[in-house]
Amino acid sequence: MTSLVSGHDFSRAERLPEKSRALAPEGCFYQIPRLTEEQLSRLVRLRGGKRKVAVSVRLDPQVLVWLRSKGEGHLTRINDILSNLMDAERRIGLGR
Tens digits of per-residue pLDDT, 38-92? Predict the structure, then answer.
């Protein structure tokens, strides 16, 4: 039997073994394509589980406005941006 939800044909999910259907609720995850190598290489780390050290930083007003314009977590975003820059420099050998 074929069921259509939002234009998608989920009949393949109905043919999957019971164990596979349990891992893919509503049978829709099998349709999501795998990430390409290019997409994987562009992923960035957003947050680590390590404790952070409290510091005071002075920013240009326009930098703070830009950070705040991105939504909640603008202070955490500063750490994320610097962490990603640090990781990128280490990958290409610019670390000092």
Answer: 888 888 766 666 778 889 999 999 999 999 999 888 888 998 899 899 998 998 8
Please name which of 44, 42, 41 lies closest in space to residue 77, comparing C-alpha atoms. Answer: 44
In SS3 terms, 29-40 reads as HHHCCCCCHHHH
Identify whether residues 26 and 54 lie together within a single domain.
Answer: no
Q: Name the 3-class secondary structure at 63.
A: helix
Q: What is the pTM of this model?
A: 0.45
Smallest Cα–Cα separation from 59: which of 80, 74, 39, 37? 74
Q: How far apart are CA 2 and CA 12, in angstroms?
A: 8
Q: 76 is in which domain, residue-wise?
A: 46-92
